[in-house]
Design a protein that fits this description.
binds alpha-D-galactopyranose; single chain; 677 residues; 39 strands; eight-stranded parallel beta sheet
């Protein structure tokens, strides 16, 4: 009898083991690390649990988060226990399971008192499976726990990475040619009498000689040919056309660059680098200098990258024992930033501009000294130190503004700082980092801000890019030269302060950069430039893509055509060309047909593939492209025989950027969002 029981026990054990072999738990390292979303997904430590529930193994998952796995029809089922994390929050969370893009199971929306919920889903036949955690209401809030979560696979199979679902694009940008090429802005602005500082972006084999033929026509302007830097001060308002020539052994290029002396700054979206994603609190003057060196080594300024921005962490902590300001109220810095002026001088000596960070509240987002009640002193100090850009981050101002009416609450602190910056004898770009609060896009320009954050922080997952695109679709009309919708730092390259590359697939990175170009969104890198790889470098040194972002017309793209899982966006460019982005929003490769009529275009147009920098012939009516999953095909259309704008649009050259964009939008609305007829 004893032997029999022993035999049964062994059988039971091996059956369980056999079963375990087919169970792929979501907390296994290679699966967990594929979760992408708003923060790190980590294994639960001992004692951490779901509110009101128990489990043996599990993950703490911030919302939103998404896991995509290729199961090749070899999966059987999924099950998991889902609930709020032990420190409950106010948001309602639920877990959803998708097979081949279709929702097949979900938990109810759970609040902190709901207790855990076991969810099971039949995955038979699925090519790919997506599991996501979503918060209802505010999608960027809340932590959940997924416990005892596994996929049962046929024996011998494991889920594969999502990138194998669709062909992934490699480096498309051709090697930069030896011939001189002007990149980036053709136009820039400065206030009368304030220092001018503009480095002319031009690529090509070195040595490369750049000169301005008619420099002497603009009193007060100087040219530093070592750095290709336009400097000086111009007192008289007006538009000055500068005839710039670049020559090297391979050839010569010419460009007319316009300097607007007037009230507007940032006539094209700012392009640069910010310290937060790469270094967070660990930022130091030393690291900032290294990034300026990297700009030089990588020739980034030749493509228009011009700002180095110090984010949070240069100030004194608000809870520190030491003073946070001197007797005159001037902000003091921590030991990692011994000399702010010297740091600015160093960055300027490379022909780059420098920015810093503060908050309208008493403390910044991570508890450093803010500018509340010191706005004027701080603006003067930043100018005195020689800074060119201020990221002004809402943070603790919410506590100050309690009880105010909505619009005033959000607008007021930016109005104060905007006025103080405007009064300086130095141009400091004002970035209102207001997360879309109080519809910042509608009033950003009125508080002397040149760009404004319309979204929460961007994280490196597909949902973040789609959210930004939704914002572009909703807010494109608030964009114009000198006023830009911002969607946060770009999440390409090595962007995790804990170390690690972006979790966006290569295809998704093409969509990310293409759409930032189309939306005229400030392109601010967040990666450690010392660790940059060839692929990331190729994404940021494609002059033809950057030209779209920096186009002088400053009209952001409107969505002109869309269907299930795809969309086409068009933006008119200075000189009569159009840029078009064909976005595959689905996981599988698909053919997208862009219908010219939907953007109000008639006649014959020449097509240029901007990522490959390749002419694609001429088109009438429709243009087709095979676009891999989550990738974007980006083209430039130039007018050829009979090219015109449909009667409903009139002559686009006669219209201001706003009217042009309005008309494109009007066309889309009347035509509807559907396939070509
Ligand atoms: C917020 C911002 C980030 C960064 C941090 C710094 O989260 O959105 O971009 O500036 O604050 O504390």
């Amino acid at each position: 009898m004893k032997n029999f029981l022993f035999f049964v026990a062994i059988l039971t054990l091996s059956a369980a083991q056999a079963l375990d072999v087919n169970r792929v738990y979501l907390d296994e390292d290679d699966i967990r690390s594929r979760f992408a979303g708003n923060g790190i997904v980590r294994v639960c430590t001992n004692g951490e649990s779901i509110v009101g529930g128990e489990f043996k193994r599990g993950l703490v998952v911030p919302s939103p988060a998404r896991l995509c796995l290729v199961t090749d029809g070899k999966a059987k089922s999924f099950s998991a226990t889902f609930g709020q994390f032990e420190k409950p929050n106010r948001s309602m969370l639920h877990l959803r399971v998708w097979c081949d893009g279709k929702l097949i199971a979900q938990t109810p929306e759970l609040n902190s008192t709901s207790g855990p919920h076991r969810v099971t889903a039949d995955l038979k036949g699925a090519r790919w499976v997506e599991i996501d955690v979503h918060a209802v209401g505010n999608p960027w809030a809340g932590k959940s726990v997924i416990g005892d979560a596994f996929i049962e696979m046929e024996e011998g199979f494991r889920p594969r990475d999502i990138t194998c679902l669709s062909r992934q694009l490699g480096v498309l940008t051709p090697k930069s040619s030896d011939e001189p090429r002007f990149n980036g802005p053709k136009v820039f602005g400065a206030r009368p009498g304030n220092p001018v500082f503009f480095r002319i972006p031009v690529s090509g084999a070195k040595p490369l000689n750049v000169s301005i033929e008619n420099l002497s026509e603009v009193p007060g302007l100087k040219f530093n040919s070592d750095l290709n830097l336009i400097e000086g001060r111009v007192e008289n308002p007006g538009v000055y056309s500068l005839k710039v020539v670049a020559k090297n052994a391979a050839g010569e290029a010419r460009r007319e660059i316009k300097l607007h002396i007037g009230e507007k700054l940032s006539l094209t979206p700012p392009m640069g680098w910010n310290s937060w994603n790469a270094f967070a609190h660990d930022v130091s003057a030393e690291k900032i200098r290294k990034m300026a060196d990297a700009f030089e080594r990588l020739n980034l300024a030749d493509y228009g990258w011009s700002y180095i921005l110090v984010d949070d962490g240069w100030q004194i902590k608000a809870d520190a024992k030491e003073p946070r300001r001197d007797k005159n109220g001037v902000q003091l810095t921590n030991e990692r930033f011994p000399d702010m002026k010297a740091l600015a001088d160093y960055v300027h000596s490379k022909g780059l501009k420098i920015g810093l960070y503060s908050s309208p509240g008493p403390v910044t987002c991570t508890g450093y000294e803010g500018s509340f009640l010191h706005e004027k002193t701080d603006a003067l100090t930043y100018a005195d130190w020689g800074y060119d850009f201020l990221k002004y981050d809402w943070c603790s101002y919410g506590n100050i503004a309690k009880g105010e009416t909505v619009q005033l609450k959000y607008l007021y602190p930016y109005l104060i700082m905007g006025r103080n910056l405007r009064a300086l004898k130095r141009d400091i770009v004002h970035y209102a980092c207001a997360y879309g609060f109080g519809d910042v896009a509608t009033w950003g320009a009125s508080v002397n801000a040149q760009c404004w954050r319309t979204t929460r922080d961007l994280f490196d997952f597909w949902g973040g890019i789609l959210t930004a695109m939704d914002q572009m679709d909703a807010l494109w009309r608030f964009v114009s030269p000198g006023g830009w919708n911002d969607m946060d730092m770009m999440v390409i390259g090595d962007i995790h302060w804990s170390g690690g590359k972006t979790r966006l697939t290569p295809n998704e990175q093409y969509t990310h950069v293409s759409m930032w170009a189309m939306g005229a969104v400030p392109m601010i890198l967040g990666c450690d430039l010392d660790k940059i790889d060839d692929f990331t470098l190729s994404l940021i040194t494609n002059g033809e893509v950057i030209d779209i972002n920096q186009d002088s017309l400053g009209a952001a793209a409107a969505k002109v055509q869309c269907g299930e899982g795809w969309s086409c966006w068009a933006r008119p460019l200075d000189g009569g060309d159009f840029a078009v982005a064909m976005v595959n929003e689905s996981q599988l490769e698909r053919e997208i047909l862009f219908c010219l009529e939907k953007a109000g275009l008639e006649g014959r147009w020449a097509v240029r593939d901007l990522w490959r920098q390749r002419d694609e012939g001429e088109v009438v009516r429709g243009y087709r492209a095979k676009v891999p999953g989550h990738a974007t095909h980006l083209i430039r259309l130039s007018p050829r025989e009979g090219a015109r704008l449909s009667d409903r649009l009139g002559d686009i050259r006669e219209n201001s950027w706003l009217r042009r964009a309005e008309k494109i939008r009007g066309q889309q609305q009347s035509a509807g969002c559907a396939d070509c007829p």
